[in-house]
Amino acid sequence: MRPATLIRFVPRKQNIIFAWQPFYLRTARTSFRSPKPLPQLLKDISGALEAKNIEVEVENAAEPCRLSCSAVRLLSVVAFEIRVFTCDAGPGGKHLVEMRGLSGCRYAFSDLAADLASHLKVSYVGATGKPKAAAFCPPAFPADAAAVLDMPSLKLASSDVKPPAAPAETPGTPEDEACTAIHVAALLVAGADEESLVAGCRACGSLAAELEACMKSCAHHGKCGANHHGHHFLFASGGPWVGLASRVAELAKVGEGEVRIVAMAAVANVAALEHVCVDWLAAAVTTVADGAAVDGSDSSADALVRREALRAAEALAQRDPGLAAALAKSDGGAFIDVLQDAVAAGSVSAANTLAACTRA
């Protein structure tokens, strides 16, 4: 590893400035080494960030190896940075890519980092800079050990043991979630502080995400357990969470900062559910169209609002041709121009929404 700390090296062919890894740098756990050429490595990283709906800002155009990133993951706003160092050739390659969390939920950052590693097909190193060791496995038990130690047969010893009876299934009812809705409503009242509003929007969005996973499981197995069947309709017409979803959609339109980001992410989660109030979906079209039209070039917060709005628009457009047509006509047809600009910037969600709006 190079001992110099401030040396900058400019390759003539690549014309990219990067730094040697400082000798004092303690490698983050979310780091990996790559043998790829620097331009290709940066291209792969940029593609992965866009595929995972992550907002990227290059602080200095002369240093493309340092990226400031922000994203919404698990209904939390996460900020982190990516730095690419060149170090002495060794196992894994001569480039070290470090992802270091700056702010936000650590669990959400870990989930995001694992998702990026899966997309890039890389393995992170440990805090020592070495690849993580394989999990410890006990040595194989010798085949003749039972005879030597005169151990009883496991089959004989367990032959008289009867398995415990399966517990009776307790049918659940939506009343528990209705009770939870009352407490969440107290967080979303007018005049509540930012922390309470964010917590309320996060609760609504998290419930929607859990319900979507539950519905996929039921569809996969071809049946729905009686203990949660009623929960599928919490956001349907007459459901106890419809009013809360409307309040969250309002915050996604008039909220500020983190409140609007998390609220728009929650709207996207609710829009993806199978059973949702028709009136709520129709009202959400305007909220989503306004959010997608936000100029994200001024601040990372606006950029995240725009990304989550495009994700919500994709959910709306793909679930019903009527909603896709309503999106296409929103703001006098200007929403199509917004989608085309987003597609040009590489947004996958915008491309899917544009295709759905064109078919409608």
Highlighted features:
single chain, 360 residues, alpha+beta, TATA-Binding Protein, Leucine-rich Repeat Variant, 2 domains, seven-stranded mixed β-sheet, disordered N terminus
Q: How would you explain this protein's 3D organization?
A:
- The protein is α+β, with helices and mostly antiparallel strands and 360 residues long.
- The protein has 2 domains: 8-120, Kinase associated domain 1, KA1 (TATA-Binding Protein, 2-Layer Sandwich); 176-359, Leucine-rich Repeat Variant (Alpha Horseshoe).
- It is 48% helix and 11% strand.
- It has 13 helices and 7 strands.
- The chain has helices at residues 38-51, 106-120, 145-149, 154-157, 175-187, 194-221, 242-254, 258-271, 278-292, 300-319, 321-329, 334-344, 348-359, and strands at 8-9, 18-20, 31-34, 55-58, 66-73, 76-86, 95-103.
- Strands 1, 2, 3, 4, 5, 6 and 7 form a 7-stranded mixed β-sheet that branches.
- α7 runs parallel beside α9, α10 (300-319) runs parallel beside α13 (348-359) and α11 crosses α13 (348-359).
- The N and C termini lie far apart (58 Å).
- The model is unreliable at 1-18, 132-137 and 151-173 (pLDDT under 50).
